[in-house]
TrEMBL record:
<dbReference type="Pfam" id="PF07336">
    <property type="entry name" value="ABATE"/>
</dbReference>
<dbReference type="Pfam" id="PF11706">
    <property type="entry name" value="zf-CGNR"/>
</dbReference>
<feature type="domain" description="Zinc finger CGNR">
    <location>
        <begin position="141"/>
        <end position="184"/>
    </location>
</feature>
<dbReference type="InterPro" id="IPR023286">
    <property type="entry name" value="ABATE_dom_sf"/>
</dbReference>
<dbReference type="InterPro" id="IPR010852">
    <property type="entry name" value="ABATE"/>
</dbReference>
<dbReference type="InterPro" id="IPR021005">
    <property type="entry name" value="Znf_CGNR"/>
</dbReference>
<protein>
    <recommendedName>
        <fullName>Zinc finger CGNR domain-containing protein</fullName>
    </recommendedName>
</protein>
Amino acid sequence: MLINHDTRCSLDAVVDLVNTAPEGAEGDGLADVAALRRFVERNVISDIGTLGERDLIAVRAVRARFAEVFATAGSESATRRTAELLNTMIAAAGTTPRLTDHDGYDWHVHYFAPGASLADHLTADCGMALAFLVVGGEQERLRRCEAPDCRHAFVDLSRNRSRRYCDSRTCGNRLHVAAYRARRREAAS
């Protein structure tokens, strides 16, 4: 599946957003407006004005809806539910496709209206990126890390769709080392 730069950036942003949710011992990655600003900067989200408490509340609500999308992904029977979730979200954001070439980037499409709130911006652009995966029959690429102590969301963009961990250097490596040590202990006894 060919994924252009803008769609990839939106997929990265939605994964980052979903992974800010408090889970287990991890606190809320969007604990305050300063954390929301760091999220915006980290994901190079443009056309964002001054952020406030209202934006934080709205983005947390969007995050919960995107988490539902990742929860429904993975099976063919869930495609209809995922489509319903995305359709509802995208419509509520007042999606307004427009061509733009800002900040030195080539022409690309933004799906949010000029002056849209951060929540609507994320809903429109990230929702459309996820919709492209559904349309392409690639919904199974929306995954959760298989490490039992992680469960972070990620989009498997590997050629053979075989990625199992959100980060092979941390979660994957940690599990492989643990399995190796268990085999060594078993062999020694």
